[in-house]
Amino acid sequence: MKLTTKGRYAVTAMLDLALHAQSNPISLAEISNRQEISLSYLEQLFSRLRKQGLVCSTRGPGGGYRVAKPLEAVPVSEIIKAVNESVDATQCAGKENCHSHGRCLTHDLWEGLSEQIEEFLSGVSLKDLIDNQNVKTVSMRQDNLTGNHQEQPLIQRVSAV
Predict the structure, then answer these.
(1) pLDDT given at position 148
(2) CATH code at 25?
């Protein structure tokens, strides 16, 4: 698998943004604090996410980021691709030169796995993740640990309904 922390952090940060952005943009410092991801690393990721149209930014005091599309229109696979990550399970990155300049015996197996992973991640949106009860529970715990009581998070509003 080639999915590194870059892809994982990008998905985590986008999910955090989706959970907390209501009327006000969310600063990267807030995401950094809740998710324990370096602020400079988030800046790099969000630069790529913005270039791919997944987030939009507001500058100045009270500025920050918002998800640029409806949450159901943002599949996890798109987030991973936006930060130049791959879910390719082949050893050769699909070039078929994995064994003495040719295909290895198991190339089709790993290529099939890559396709299944891509299909799965394409079928899971930010909205799907937000609707997951485990995600809501973890987000509430993180909010309590970091003292995020400025505005009631989306998951608490959803749970109250």
Answers:
(1) 66
(2) 1.10.10.10
